[in-house]
Structure formats: structure tokens, C-alpha cells
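User: I'm putting together a teaching handout on how sequence relates to shape, and I'd like one worked example. Could you take L-aspartate oxidase from Sinorhizobium americanum, show the sequence you're using, and then write out its predicted structure as C-alpha cells right after it?

Assistant: Happy to. First the sequence, then the C-alpha cells directly below it.
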Amino acid sequence: MLTDHFRPQSFNGIDDIVIVGGGLAGLFCALKLSPRPVTILAAAPIGHGASSAWAQGGIAAAMSTGDTVEKHVADTVAAGAGIVDEKMTRMMVAEGPARIHDLLEYGVPFDRDLEGKLILSREAAHSERRIVRVKGDMAGKAIMEALIAAVRNTPSIRVIEGYVVEELVREGRFISGVVARPDAGQSKTRVSFPARAVVLCSGGVGHLYAVTTNPWEACGQGVGMAARAGAIIADPEFVQFHPTAINIGKDPAPLATEALRGDGAILVNSKGRRFMLDIHPDGELAPRDVVSRGVFDEVKAGRGAFLDCTKAVGKHFPDMFPTVYASCMAAGIDPVTQPIPVAPAVHYHMGGVLTDGEGRTSIDGLWAAGEVTSTGVHGANRLASNSLLEAVVFAARIAENIKGTLPAPKLTEWGDNAGENDDPVTVEDSPPFKRLRGLMSECVGVVRTRESLLHAIREIAELERVNTRLRFANIITTAKLIAVAALQRAESRGGHFRADCPAERPEWQRRTYLTLAQAERLAAEAAETEPA
Ligand SMILES: Cc1cc2nc3c(=O)[nH]c(=O)nc-3n(C[C@H](O)[C@H](O)[C@H](O)COP(=O)(O)OP(=O)(O)OC[C@H]3O[C@@H](n4cnc5c(N)ncnc54)[C@H](O)[C@@H]3O)c2cc1C
């Protein structure tokens, strides 16, 4: 679907920069590139099909009295379990306040006190109050609404919605455009978009798993596409589970934001026992991976896990956390008086397409921003509310880099018919995709073992053998990269937990870098390993 509103005549014939994805990273990058002509291709209408619109906590930025860049860096490094890139992190954190001011200028209504100063909240593993929020849990929605309005008012930005990008076109060392399938990926025809610069902002991988908080568009297509085009992928094994997805059998699972625990909500089992204090001195505010395993163990042992907000939030719930309140009430749970059933769900991917400080990937002509990347700032475990920060900081840096390195727009034909090549497929409904999601949750999930990973790699190979569709190839490539890297990393660190090697190992205090060719070789070796 091409929205006429977004199709100014002046664009005919110019396709200089193509941005894949209309979440926070994509929209922010387009706005920062203005007045340079930009085309955004988004799988769903912007504002939909993007994790950005669902963010509940907010954005972290060292802006309060007493907070410093160094403190924010130190918290990020501590959360990242020994493999955070400190240089990149310092750069991101230092630029955070300026990007918050940009968002204010675009009209984001961050919460303010009576004097008009920004209200800063505290979240798990942050040593200071540094999260800017909107009406408790409405940050993502409000940010996206403001940016969508700004994009609509920017004539240099053309938005094409419902186009699922399936391929990055590579010519020698360069990415020279993309190929997309219209009608939310259902069209028989594909359309090519030549471009001098492609910025990949396609979000995360949550829907590779059976239980996730992410929209279905976040199924790892971006990482797979980039890997298939030859890009280096970093740290794919590090997947973050959110410990408190609301456990009511919905797909995607609604989220009970971390801010609830920041405000004093506690985790109990069905016997009313507060179990996190036995596991970590910070209790409910321990790092996400620790809380996730605590919740996972209670659920697996049949005792269940519940977030009890009745004392900490109580009657203020509807005003303070309207989104969570609505999700609970829709499932017949009143969080003012009742504990909320919770379970861990895939929430965020620390790994992704390797980028440098300017958002450049290892292939010329391809930049990337947001969750699809691995900039190194999250290490093995993301600090809450650092991902929206990462999206805006690096999207802005990419805009500067492109403006500096590609000064003149190029005239090309856009919208070439790239022909029919492949049956369209509704990814979310297809049996192989469902099988893959179950496999990833079971064998490459909160708790992994060598045996479970070998099994996953063999099953992935089988699924790959019988499914030749391009879009599925992108998705399964990402699954393979995650499973292979998780098998290689014979230790536990951050979001990656191996029950067969539960400790960190000094020789593994390093990031993972993997090309698809390397992953294919490792997967072939693993597939030949005899089952125990
Ligand atoms: C429920 C929830 C709550 C969260 N809360 C917070 C929070 O409080 N603070 C925080 O910092 N982070 C939070 N996060 C994480 C954060 O929202 C994301 O990491 C961030 O929004 C990612 O932004 P993005 O622009 O990279 O991706 P997205 O916002 O996911 O956007 C990706 C875009 O790419 C499109 N797309 C995908 N594949 C294709 C394709 N093949 N072709 C074309 N388009 C494609 C999608 O449709 C979408 O438009 C939360 C995440 C979730 C799910």
C-alpha cells in the first residue's frame, strides 16, 4: 500500500537513500537526513508492527543532578557482563541528552514537574534516576506519534508502507538497493529500489520464539538479509528475555513493565513466597537475565510466578500504568487487588549486524541502526531503556555520516518491477515458522545446553532443506546464527545461559563475530556430531 499523502511528485525518479523499517531508528534517521530525499520502506503502516510503539519504560539519559556520563557508562558496562564496548557506550551516553532535546523539539511530551523540568525515573540496574517517560508507561506510543507527525510534515521523506524488504542487492563491494514485496509481503510481484545508501532499521528477532513481547514483524529478517548479503554479524547468541511478560496465553505477550518493579512491585510464587531475594541481593531489581531465570524456574517447577503490585502501586495502577492495566483487565485480572501471572518472554536482541560508531556495517553502502544492529553497547545483556537511546543516537550519527560521505543525490529509476520469483507466504501462519518458533523457545531459550543446541541446529538444517522461500530463508538464517553462536560459547554470560557450563569463562570474555559462511561451516560440523 502506497499512501498518497506520502508520495510527493518531486520524488519521481530519485532514490538516493532507502531506509528499511519505520520504527524509532528509521523515522529518526529520516528526519535527521532531511531535507535530503529519503524513502522509508516499512512492512506495516508506520506506528504499527514496530517495537518502538510498544516501549513502556522510556529512554535512559544522564540528565539528573548528580548523574554523570561516567555513572551511566558504568551501569551499562556492569549490565553487559564483561563484553560491552566502552568507547561506543561513552559516545552513546554522552550524546543522550542532546537526542532527548531533539525528541522534545519533534514534540514528544515527556513527563515534566510543576516547574517544567523533565521527571526522571529509576529502573532496574540504573544507579540514578535517569529514565524519561510519558504518562507512566506510554513512552513508545507518544514518541512514535510525535515522530510520525514530524515525518508527515517533512516533504523530503517518502513513506511506502506494507512493503516487506526481502533482499539487499549487492554489486561487488557495494549494496546498491533493495528488493521488496508489496501488500504486506503478499503480492506475487516484487519491486526493486536502487539506492546509493541503504539504512537497515528493521528491528529485532522476538518472533523467532514462541513467547515474545515483540510484534510479528520482528522476526529477524534484517539480520538474515544482511548476513546473506555478506555482512558480519556480532553477538547473535545474546537474546534478552523479559522476566515479566503477562502470562495469559496471548501472542505477542503483553508486558508488565520493569518500572513496576522499580516502583516496588514484588515477585511471588503461588504460595505467596517472594523468591527473588533467595537468588540475588537486589531481589526484583537484579539484572534481567537473573530475574528471568528465577521466574522460569518457578514456572517450570509448577509453582507459577506472579508480579504483586497491590501494595507498591495499588489504586494508582490505572493512572500510573494505563497500558498494563488495560492488558490485565482484558484478561480478567485486576492488578489493583490481584497479583499478575508472569513468564519470561523474548524481548530484545543484543546481537545483530555489526556496526561502527557511524552506523556503518562491514559492507559498503549499508548502514544499520536500532535493534537490528550490534554496536557493542549492550554487551551480553542490555541495560533497561538503553535501546531507544541507542536507536536515536546511532540513527543521528548515520545521518551525519551519509551527509558527509554522499554529498549529491543520484538520479535512478525507482520502483522497477523485479519480477515474480517466489510464492508469497504469510510468515506468521506457516507451519514451518511455527515449528521454528517452538524449537527456538525449547532449545535456544532461557536455559540452553550443548545437546539442546545441537538438536536445534539439526532441526534448522532440516527446515531449511524443505523450505526454499526467500523470506523464510532470511528468518531461518538468523535462527541458525543464534543457535551456532550459542553452541560455540561454552560458558554462561548475560542473556546466554548454558546449564552445562553455568559459569563465565575468562577465555570467552570477548564478543562473537560471525559471517554466514562461517556459521554454515560450524552448523554442518555440529549437524554431524553424534547425539549423546
Ligand atoms: C513491549 C516492549 C517494550 C519495550 N520497552 C522499552 C523501553 O521502555 N525502553 C527501551 O529503551 N526499549 C524498550 N523496548 C525495546 C525497544 O522498543 C526496541 O529495541 C526499539 O524500539 C527498536 O527500534 P527499531 O526502530 O530498531 O525497531 P522497531 O521499532 O521494531 O521498528 C522496526 C521496523 O522495521 C519494519 N520491518 C521489519 N522487517 C522488515 C522488512 N523485512 N521490510 C520492511 N520493514 C521491515 C517493522 O515493520 C518496523 O517498522 C521495548 C520493546 C518491547 C517489545
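A couple of points you could highlight for students: Residues 95 and 211 are 34 Å apart (CA to CA). The domain at 243-345 is CATH 3.90.700.10 (Flavocytochrome C3; Chain A, domain 1).
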